[in-house]
Amino acid sequence: MPTTLYNSDTSPAGTAAALVFDDRDEEISVSGLLDTLARRARIITWTAVLAALLSTSIAFLIPPEYTAEAVILTPQQSQPSLSALAQATGVSPALGLPGLALLSGFGIRNPADLYVGILESRTIADALISRFHLREVYGDDYTQRARKRLARRTTIKTGKDTLIHIQVDDRDPKRAAQLANAYVDELSRRNTTVALTEASQRRLFFEVQLTKEKELLANAENALRDTQQFTGLVEPAGQAEALIRSASQLHAEILTKEAEVAGMRTYVADENPRYQMVARELSALRSELAKLEAGEHVAGTPEVPVEKLPQAALAYLRKYRDVKYHEGLYEALSKQYEAARLDEAKAAPLIQVIDTAVVPEKRSWPPRTLIVLMSTFVSVLLVSCCIVICGPATRMRP
User: Fold this and answer.
1) Which ranges of 120-231 does DSSP label H, i.e. alpha helix?
2) Which of 152, 180, 356, 393 is within CB 3.0–4.6 Å of 168 for a Cys-Cys bond?
3) What is the pLDDT of residue 83?
């Protein structure tokens, strides 16, 4: 049944302006929508054509960018010098080498994270900005702005395969490849500088200790000679040999611990759990050596206390022991010094390049086809919605 809407105006003109709607006209069906769109097919077609032409023009006006990628293998830290030292002195190879402890025991689960941090550092960014004149290329008056723009155009990522991917976007494909390869060059240079600094510190430490120990060994040899002349003893007993070996071993372990503590002080605080543990181990070793040198019996050892030896033999024993453990210590220091020199000579772990960045042949931005398709689709959708919404108004009748 038709529904009549009357104007509140009771005048004849108001009555004539009343609108009458049919209930069937108010029902919007799918067939009705399609019929409405079909009657406006020409408008929709022209909208699609114009949107495609306009979006194509805009897509071609956007400056293209190219992405170059370099892939490197995460440098692996090694400790051949510590292995050789462990075989020579019997000290655990886990002692020392603060650089390796930094990578494995102080929160860096993946060594690649360290090198990603170096690649993203301000030092490398400034080196690339200066090398390729990026301030002029980007049109920035300040280095800080050029640094931020370079960071936005650079993607450095790593995965479980221990490979580091360096991607650089640039409007010049040749410059994009050069920048990606320059990141690898700067990483090698920074890595060499850091490794040389750490190796040089260890070499200098052992060099100073070796010089001191050489003087102490000479003094011990002179003291032993004087004792031999006074007591007439030439060779120590078997127990003296065991005590000397124990003292020499303890002194070598103490020196290695001292080197580890000295290295850890450069990058950790005194409250660090690892540092406190190493400090306690060093204190225990010193206490054990003090007991041995004082002639006290060390628990768990079969040796007879030193105070029970004859007085003359005891005097000779102590001088002979001094010479022997200074000899052992001097030998251990010599090995560590040579190992530090080798570490300094071989510098840093080699940066192995898996894929060198090449000049990209295809652009990576903008996606012109996607821009045209999405712009055309959105334009057609908006026009169709307008036609459907405005359609019922055209069906109103007096």
Assistant:
1) 122-132, 134-138, 143-152, 173-231
2) 180
3) 46
> Could you list the residue range(s) of the whole structural domain that residue 216 is in?
66-355
Report yes or no on 371 lying in a domain: no
CB 48 within 8 A of CB 377: no
CA distance 380 to 42: 12
372 in a structural domain: no
Residue 267 lies in a domain: yes
DSSP 303: P
> Contact at 8 Å (CB) between 210 and 333?
yes
Q: What is the pLDDT of residue 17?
A: 39
8 Å CB contact between 366 and 67: no
How many CB atoms are located within 10 Å of the residue 345 CB? 10
Same domain, 44 and 151: no
The pTM (predicted TM-score) of the whole model is 0.52
**Residue holding tokens 């510190």?**
201
What are the φ and ψ backbone dihedral angles of 70, each rounded to 5 degrees?
Answer: -120, 140
pLDDT along the chain (398 residues), means of 10: 45 42 50 75 86 85 90 70 45 41 44 86 94 93 94 90 91 95 92 70 85 90 81 56 69 79 73 83 84 57 49 73 83 86 72 91 83 88 84 50
Question: What local confidence, expressed as pLDDT, does residue 90 receive?
Answer: 45
Instruction: Return the closest-CA partner of residue 336 out of 281, 249, 259.
Output: 259
Structure tokens at 39: 């009657």
Q: Which helix (H) or strand (E) holds 157?
A: strand 154-158
Q: Measure the N-to-C terminal CA separation of the chain; round to a whole number of Å.
A: 17
Residues 57 and 85 in one domain: no
State whether 78 and 41 are in the same domain.
Answer: no
pLDDT value at position 367? 82
Strand partners, 352: 73
Cα separation, 377 vs 383, in Å, equals 10
Find the Cα–Cα–Cα–Cα dihedral 133, 137, 142, 144, rounded to 10°: -80
Residue with token string 């821009």: 371
> Count of domains in the chain?
2
Claim to verify: residue 44 and residue 80 sit in the same structural domain = no
* Domain assignment of residue 330, yes or no: yes
**φ/ψ of residue 365, rounded to 5:** -155, 140
The total of other beta-carbon atoms located within 10 Å of residue 204's CB is 13
